[in-house]
Design brief:
Layout: E1 7-13, H1 20-28, E2 35-42, H2 48-58, E3 62-67, H3 72-82, E4 87-90, E5 96-97, H4 101-111, E6 116-124, E7 130-133, E8 141-143, H5 145-153, E9 164-167, H6 173-179, H7 186-193, E10 200-212, H8 218-221, E11 222-224, H9 226-239, H10 245-262, H11 272-282, H12 285-294, H13 306-323, E12 331-333
Helix pairs in contact: 3-6, 5-10, 6-7, 9-10
Length: 339
């Protein structure tokens, strides 16, 4: 009888028959073998259900859950409910693990009882080119719950679930449930929701995961409205309840900044109401100084002059539409929740 697995690998599966074999093979090829892989067939309409059944028939470490389509995050929740490992690794089915990914992550995790360990990632583009993304805090550690949360909010930790290893006890069914119906940004909400349990975080240089940039994905074909960002920001404030004023101010600063960037988005354009909200914030010298220290200054040029800022953002949107988007238009996502 096999020992209880040290690592549970959670893979939501939907309409990825072209990539699933590669994903599973990358796990089977790992030098670390004490794992279980939970494939959650999320009502996939292609051959994925049959492929999942074939995988588990060949290797008992691979488990399969079949369910009606509920979305990737709900699929992760289902996998979590069945996971037996001490640690969790999240893997998207169109991505794959690099050699020795599990052994390097697990070795670091148990070295000093880290709750989270993140590695470097291989970013692969549609044209076949690739580049390595090294964690900003590579070789360093974070100690303390609020220090972890501040690093996350300051973009020193990428807000994705993949590319690392997590202590399972950080999560609960409620944490997964809170982000299940979010259209975009569920990984960010989940990473923030676990902050009270993160005592120690570390990042390593090892390249652990290859992920693909799909130009037709939701993140590439949709943009988020002011209303979406506002709902997202309110949820982040709610999750951080009880944290220090430094944390709350950082969330508020991020909230204002995403609204500012909406003015540079061709599909959204100018909005007097939201400009008034922004102006009330940036007219304070300390607030504007904090924004300038942490963001690209091009978004803050002329921010205190309604007329000039409106003209500046108009020209930017025209150029961006023609040069970057080649005239294509993306859809605007207004609803924060899919329910």
């Amino acid at each position: 009888m096999m020992n209880t697995p040290k690592i549970s690998i959670l893979v939501p599966v939907y309409n990825v028959e072209k990539y699933l074999q590669r994903c599973v093979d990358s796990v089977l090829a790992q030098d670390f073998t004490n794992w279980e892989m939970i494939l959650v067939d999320d009502g996939s309409p292609d051959r994925c259900p049959q492929m999942c059944d074939a995988f588990t028939a060949k290797d008992t470490r691979i488990k399969v859950i079949h369910q009606e389509n509920r979305g990737a995050h709900a699929a992760r929740k289902a996998g979590f409910e069945h996971a037996k490992g001490e640690y969790l690794v999240f893997l998207d089915p169109d991505d794959y693990l690099l050699p020795k990914a599990l052994s390097s992550l697990y070795a670091k995790a148990i070295e000093s009882k880290y709750d989270i360990v993140k590695g470097a990632n291989l970013r692969v583009r549609n044209n076949g080119t690739s580049s390595i993304e090294t964690p900003i805090l590579s070789g360093k550690e974070i100690v303390g719950e609020e220090n972890y949360l501040f690093a996350l909010l300051s973009y020193h930790i990428l807000p994705y679930l993949w590319g690392g290893i997590y202590r399972k006890t950080l999560f609960s069914e409620e944490i997964f449930k809170s982000a299940t119906n979010i259209s975009i940004g569920e990984d960010w909400i989940t990473n923030q929701s676990i902050w009270r349990g993160v005592k120690r975080y570390a990042a390593i240089d090892n390249v652990v995961c290859a992920y693909y940039i799909n130009s037709s994905s939701m993140m590439q074909t949709r943009v988020l409205s002011h209303e979406y960002h506002e709902s997202f920001g309110k949820m982040m404030l709610q999750i951080a309840t009880g944290a220090s004023s430094k944390i709350m101010q950082t969330i508020e600063r991020n909230r204002i900044m995403v609204h500012i960037k909406c003015f540079f988005t061709p599909e959204i354009g100018w909005d007097n109401t939201w400009y008034n909200v922004i102006y009330e914030y940036v007219k304070n010298d300390n607030n504007l100084k904090a924004l300038l220290q942490n963001n690209d200054k091009k978004f803050l040029e002329f921010i205190r002059s309604r007329t000039i800022f409106r003209l500046y953002t108009f020209v930017y949107r025209i150029l961006f539409q023609g040069i970057k988007l080649h005239g294509c238009k993306r859809s605007v996502l207004y609803n924060f929740s899919t329910t």
